[in-house]
Amino acid sequence: MTRVSGARPLRAAPHGRAPLGSPPPGGPLGSAPAPLLRRIVRQGKYETVTMLRNGEQLILAVVLPLLAMVGLTVTPLLDGLGSSRINVAVPGILALCAMSTAFTGQGISTGFDRRYGVLRFLSTTPLGRTGLIAGKVLAVLVVLFLQVVVVTAVALLLGWQPEPAGWLPGMALLALGAASFTALGLLVAGTVRPEATLAITNLLWILLGALGGIVIPAERLPALAQAVVHFLPSGALGQALRDAFLHGSVNAAAVLVLLFWTAVAGGAATRWFKWN
Amino acid sequence: MRSPESPVLSISGLVKDVGPLPTLDGKMLRVVSGLSLVAERGQVTALLGANGAGKTTTIECAQGLQKRTAGSISLLGQDPDTAGAGLRARVGVMLQDGGLPPSARPIPLLKHIAGMYQDPWPIEELIGRLGIDSFSRTSVRRLSGGQKQRLALAAALAGNPEVLFLDEPSAGLDPQSRQLVFELISELRDRGMGIILTTHLMDDAQRLADYVYIIDAGRNVAEGTVTQLLQHRLPSAGEQHIRTLLFEAEPGLDFTGVLPDDVDVTEARAGSYAATGALTPADLAAITAWWAAHGIMPSSLSLEARSLEDVFLDISGREIR
Fold first, then answer.
1. Do B222 and B232 contact (CB within 8 A), yes or no?
2. Which of B80, B198, B253, B275 could form a disulfide with B64 if both were Cys (CB 3.0 to 4.6 A apart)?
3. pLDDT tens string B94-121
4. Is the pTM of this model over 0.90?
């Protein structure tokens, strides 16, 4: 290495240039981070607003699930599976909402955030990587809550009569389902190009939506599909929510399947997520 | 002699391998190999090098964005790989690609980022200083290169940091933005901020930097103040500083014997001459006397000292990589 002369210059104390504005110039440098919880809540709020402003996401999150719900109540597809078509349909639609927001919507936005360096930039702020993920999870939960409110309101108008004992396990299962779909969405978004994330998460939304046991119970699917859907997060969440809202019961096997997917996808995302 | 204060950033023996890469038959590529540098408070420290020299990788290791393979890094006395929000709050980062969400609008975005700090730089002040109000209603994706850079700088300054990393800060800047950004950087330096920037532009380093590290192929090949680097003499360059005399006159003149043999005279375009070498006052007298004797009046005439670019090319080699 060529070292050019030894002395390193010492700059004199800040010299007398007129400060050009109020506070910072002149004041001490450096700040403390905002408290962790406040950072996460702010990030969650920011991401929620971004999601709600995105027209395509709103279609995926609200319009398509509502159309599917109406479709299932005017066709005989679900006849004979429960007390009424709407009672069988709505739990599956709630599960579909979780997949829309946590998997497809969140996956696509994370994929593009990664492409544009947003994840890298935010991870250099006090928010950090864990705060960023926590903020995304929070936004998913908030949007999912709003979806549940809208879907429930429309469903009640259409005559939905949920089993009252189903609400508590139902909401807990929905949160668990959102956790597994968020982990899966992050796994896809963090490992392939955003265009591929867009294609994969949309295609899976359609495939799992139609054949994954989420809105159409396994009994009404082709024999080949019946064997696997119980082991898919879509089939497990759909069935668990139907058991909760139709009978007020908790489907332990489905809970185990969802826990399994959350752990595996979460672990894989932690291991293979590429930030840049 | 060192600053009595501890440096804001000190990197020692940094090594960074990336890969395995399919283009290298699945082998690892060494992007940084044994780089060391020190950046002080109240100074602009520039990492100068060609594209692909390892500048960005080096500062991203310092920011904790990339994990180093070997070596040690101390940023404000902490290891960036293990430090938490407390350290990140004291460090501002402007990435090369901006890192701002395309759908965001400037002011809500800056407010959001400022919300991550206990005691942020007042947003209105930043907006005014960087002229962001002129495009505050435009989404990031529609901003010009210069507007994006100014917004990214504002975002990096939101926490009023002690250390500021700028990766290619003048990329895409129009002359007015460049002036604005350079003035702000100088002012921040005078306030005591430790500023570390990467650039492949000699002019940036020459205008901004208190101390320059020339980076080539993942290692630092030279360092010093701009003045020190300009005085840097290669063994073959003799005792005098290299200067270039540029002038325009009638084409096809023959200067044989007018200037010493080690002064290189070229006619790049017809009538456009450059005499490069260790020029002395006697050489200048000789050539002007020769013009007088032959009745030649140059239409333009200038004398240029060695530029940082020459130093850089001398040190890192002139071949295209």
1. yes
2. B80
3. 998 889 999 999 999 999 999 999 999 9
4. no
